[in-house]
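Late entry, evening session. Most of the bench is empty. Finally got around to the prediction I had been postponing all week. Sequence below, unchanged from the version circulated by S.P.
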Amino acid sequence: MPNSLTAASPTSRAKPVQIQLPPSQQINQWRQSFLSLNSTRLEQARSLMLERQTRVLDVLPILLHLNHPQLPGFINQKVPAGIEHYSPQANSLSALRYVAKGLQIPRISGIRCIQSIFLMGSLGTLAQTANSDLDVWLCHVHDMSDEQIAMLKAKCELIEKWAASQKVELHFFLMDAEDFRQGKQQDYVDAEHSGSTQHILLLDEFYRSSLWLAGRMPSWWLVPTEYEKHSQRYLDQLSDEQLIHDVHWINFGSIPTIPAAEFVGAGLWQLNKGLKNPYKSLLKLLLTQHYASQYPNIRPLCWDLKDTVHNGNIEALSCDGYLLMLNRVSKHVAAEHDDKRLELLRRAFYFKAHLPLTKASQGQQRQWRYQELKQIVDSWQWTQAHISHLDHRDEWQVHEVQTERNALVNEMLTSYRYLASFSDQYAKKIRINRQDITLLGNQLYAIYDAKPGKILTINPNITPSLLQDKISLVLSEENRWQLVSGTYNKEANHRIIKQSPSLIELLCYAHFNGLLSNHTNYAIYPEHNPLTKYELKELLQVVRSIARPKYIAAANYLRPSTPIQWQLFINTGIDPMHKLTRRGMQKLSSRDDALGYSALKENLVQSIDLLTINSWGEWRIQRFQGQNSLIDSLYYLLQHIPLARKQGWPEHLCHCFCATRSGAISLRVEQILADITEHTLEQPRVDYILEAGKNYYVWQQDKNGIKLQQADSVAKFLAILARPRQYYGHYKLDVNALSGSPLKAIFNNAKPGAWQLYFWHKEDSYFWYLLDEHGVLLHQQQKANSDSEVLIPIIRFLRQVDQRMQGRLVRKRARTLSLFELKRNNETTEFEPMPRRLPPRQKQTSQIQLNAILDDQNQVNIYCNGEEFSIWEWGTQLYQKVAATILNMRADNETYPVYLTDLALYGDESIIQHIKFKQGIEKDLNHALMALSTTR
């Protein structure tokens, strides 16, 4: 009569759960069923292995059981060893004789430090292949020191290397069953699983697929599924009643349910794994989705397996973990009546099996795997032609691979969206390690996120190779490049692999996805094309030299992505001098600057394709076209100044292979990019001036980042330079900026804190420039007969205003005022500043003192030799009245220009603002003078 015991449910406050312990015969039967199933599955696994694999597998327990100099992995006698309850069987002893001839197994004394060893993965299932790895869970005792664990790891690494020398891939994962049961993260987290995100799901997979090799057996097999939620109480009672002895069993924990958090983590992880193994990931992702749909009343697959075994069915295929998964997920997908999803699921399982039925050898056809898989696909009613098409996927065309990839990605993302919705619904119950979520989420973003110009992987291990013998590059009538496999024929209906305005995007796409090789032939259509064969050859050489991403460190995904390399492709497929050639303008002047070529100042940079490679391994192409292509690309790159201040600028390379002046263009862009990036870090407060074509550009930095001011004429450029500043603003000029302009000499001679007046003349036209203490520049042009006619009025005004500013205690000392005449150097043709003495003060006097005062509304009052003319008195006739007064004071009513002697503004304005108001008042006065002279 079995014992009746009571356990309280952890999820209910109702009456306690009655636990009915089985009789000892039942316990023994379940134990024997487990051992029989395990033995059968091991034999199935061995039947599919090569001799060298079975030899490594058979000797493996002995290598862990002993420390002996003749055995692989030996370090010293202090390394933890000894498997509990282990005695070598005949097959192990036979394998030992091959590895270490004549070695006799000594008697083990002392503590045995290894509790159990298991095989994990697809071994013994329909999914096993000749290339399946040996993944071993090595469970050690709980009280091992860190030093002992380190030694055991070292020994395992040596055994792995020895196995590799036997051409067998072996991996150990050390674990502590007690720590695992408590959810502590350990070495058992491998490439298939991710830390805190999948603890119970990992345990579910372990119970349905692991193979026990030696040591303690899993106590889980003794727990009926009805007591899964109370397994610890149940096992304690079995031990108390002496129905089992704890030393013979190892407890990894039970699966009462699956926490909500694990579905989200598992979904993210499988999506990321899908890039390398999409079909396996799809199966597991759909299983995870199915589990989530059952939450919270989940029935794990391992329960089905245990119930099957407890009911006496230990037939290997009925207990195949992959078939159990296939059947469960197929029912889940079939319930949605979506035939395409069901077919994709079936293809995923078929490909995961790695057994192409139409290519199987006679030996393979005799194996149990072939027979079982053939029976399955027959039940799906797959035709021989369809199976043959799947078996020849290594010959699939690019468009077929793209279609399959899109189906896989769409299914995976659909599953993920379901899991994301699930996580929102149960957000309060989800407690995932934020680092895991950041890592997995960013990997997902890097792999699957599609955005303009991003190069996506189209072959996530769908076919071994997409290498093309011939590729055609076609320029369509819409001026878009098309990538076509094989020889292009205008009359044929070709499948376009990819199209884009950017040829570089297509070449990077082809290289990134392995379409190109040294032997690939390329053709350009139409033949009369701006893209020359020479240019294509050089571009391909550059693109193919760029390393494709292989391994990205996990730490990279824990931080936002950052650019690590920039490649600039200039004028791809463009002859920048095509128009100049037709107009015969190439040699009209000595101007050979690529940004201001010939007398027409043509900007030869017509397009830039920017390839950005970032720290997540993403490639992205951004195309900039037209006269502003260089400026737009620079503006984009300079947005990364905050990043550059922390870790320096990314590596940047420039490439240009266009028909004319390609080397000069490439060097010029490289020089500008190097100059401006270095300048922004070394002199952030200094504005940078660049000239391209007929446009002027001023780059400024402030706390909010980079700003760009643009002018398409000299007048607009001068207006930018005349804007007020609070602090002194110096200018750094690009090497070719303002060539032949007086501004170049002025800025190179600028001095903070001073007023500098520059002038030059051509015939009767005089040009003067005032650079104030903050580096603000004001310009004026006027007709005059002599220097003094131009300079004396402005110098007199500057001194008068400065004197009044001192009187208002704005400053204690007179402002330094310097005068320079600008003259061209006969050899360089550049202007040079020549210091000039200021006119004596006695020459700066005027018979007519003309002062003005502006109030807070900028209303003007004018004083002519002390006589006041108020806007309030004269209104719109103010300037006519003042002009008439001036004419009456002059001999013969002469109408030469009038200049203000002084001007007082309401606020504490800059000298530039004074002069701007001065110029406006003088303009109105002189206009009134001319009007009066014509009426007299």
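Two things to note before I forget:
The longest strand covers residues 563-570.
Confidence is low (pLDDT under 50) at residues 1-14, 187-195.
Will write this up properly tomorrow.
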